[in-house]
Amino acid sequence: MPCAPQAATGAVSLDERFFARDVVTVARELIGATLLVAGVGGVIVETEAYDREDPASHSFSGPTRRNAAMFGPPGRAYVYRSYGIHWCLNFVCGEAGHGSAVLVRALEPRAGLDTMRARRNLDEPRALCAGPGRLTQALGITIAHDGLPLAEPPFAVLPRGCEPPIVAGPRIGISKAAELPWRFGLAGSRFLSRPFPKV
DNA sequence: GGTATGATTGACT
DNA sequence: GTCAATCATACCA
Questions:
Q1: Interior/surface letters A122-158, b for 16+ CB within 10 angstroms, e for the rest
Q2: Integer distance in angstroms from CA A175 to C1' B2?
């Protein structure tokens, strides 16, 4: 809690203008923002950037049925099934059709804790949203959310109040372009999916 | 503390 | 058939 979000009172959701920029910049600036899905969510503490020229990105080999949302307008959700069992949530970035997106990997739970606990069948807040698959389960995200605008219900992405301390490191769970430091996290957060490597 | 494995879908060789 | 932006569980030290 190094920096309070503007969450509570009627803040307006970040929209297409925020997301229509360089994907790495957006990934970094999303740390500390608040994500809500139907009123359930919290502060984004971990993200990863995926670019069209990035061998680890789903968009690298061009559009397919699965990644269609990545090639649509920015400011929308891209949801895909991971390892056959989990859902992963991305925010589409850059110019429309560019094929870049930010993977949301972890939240600090703030709103709808009981709903998240019920969905995850778990009490411990620290593990409720610490990982892309866990996060989507806690927020009730499925393929039905693929392509939906992030500035409209059930989604809301509220701007952070100020610039929080941010750490960067290599992305997780990929084998290609694994050296790119395109994973961003809130420094010192206890809600990360995994710790960042020490400098 | 750590490493290994199964679940299960979609895209690609 | 193989691999993948994962997680929970099982086992070993």
A1: eeebeebbbbbbbbbbbbbbeeebbbbebbeeebbbb
A2: 22
